[in-house]
Amino acid sequence: MAEISETRTILVNLTSIAAEKVRELLTQEDSTELGLRVFVAGGGCSGLQYGMTLDEAQDGDEIFEAAGVRILVDEMSSQYISGSEIDYVDSLMGAGFTVNNPNAVSTCGCGHSFRTAGDTGQARSCGCGH
After folding, report:
1. CA-CA distance, 17 to 89, in Å (whole number)?
2. How far apart are CA 38 and CA 112, in angstroms?
3. Distance between CA atoms of residues 99 and 51, nearest Å
4. How far apart are CA 13 and CA 99, in angstroms?
5. What pTM does this model have?
6. What gap in Å lies between CA 36 and CA 130, rounded to an integer?
7. CB of 46 within 8 A of CB of 124?
8. Residue 125: which residues within 8 A CB-CB, separation 6 or more?
9. pLDDT tens column, 34-83
10. Per DSSP, what are the bridge partners of residue 35?
């Protein structure tokens, strides 16, 4: 595997609650090689959707630490999520990670998909029940 260049810029920040939840997940995996991969993929009711998984670093990843957690972001995703904050919410509607993205001009009611100013596609109906 080629050497991975690490960036000093923090693209994504984690709240203390989100960082605690990620550390719990990493502890369960019992691997020092894993970090939190944050990515963007096409789809969702607003055009783009967030994704997160525990993963090993890949060539071309931007790697940094936020709130004591190793974060991995691929080059394509970094342009869409730069400046975002990940939180963990536990409410009557359910528990899970949410993304507060300053680059999003519209988001789906479920908070899992978004559209940026450069996206000319039409927002589709939200199928998440909101």
Report:
1. 8
2. 13
3. 10
4. 10
5. 0.74
6. 28
7. yes
8. 45
9. 999 999 888 766 678 889 999 999 999 999 999 999 999 999 999 888 99
10. 55
Residue indicated by tokens 């029940």: 129
* 60 backbone dihedrals φ, ψ, rounded to 5°: 90, -5
Determine the 3-state secondary structure of 15 from DSSP.
coil
In this structure, how many other beta carbons lie within 10 angstroms of the beta carbon of residue 120? 7
Return the structure tokens found at 6.
């690490």
**Letter for the amino acid at 88?**
Y
Name the one residue in this structure whose structure tokens are 């019992």.
30
Go through the domains of the chain in sequence order and give each one's CATH number.
Answer: 12-116 (2.60.300.12)
How does pLDDT run across 12-34, given as a tens digit for each residue?
999 999 999 999 999 999 888 99
Residue 47 one-letter amino acid: G
The Cα–Cα gap between 79 and 92 comes to: 33
CB 43 within 8 A of CB 49: yes
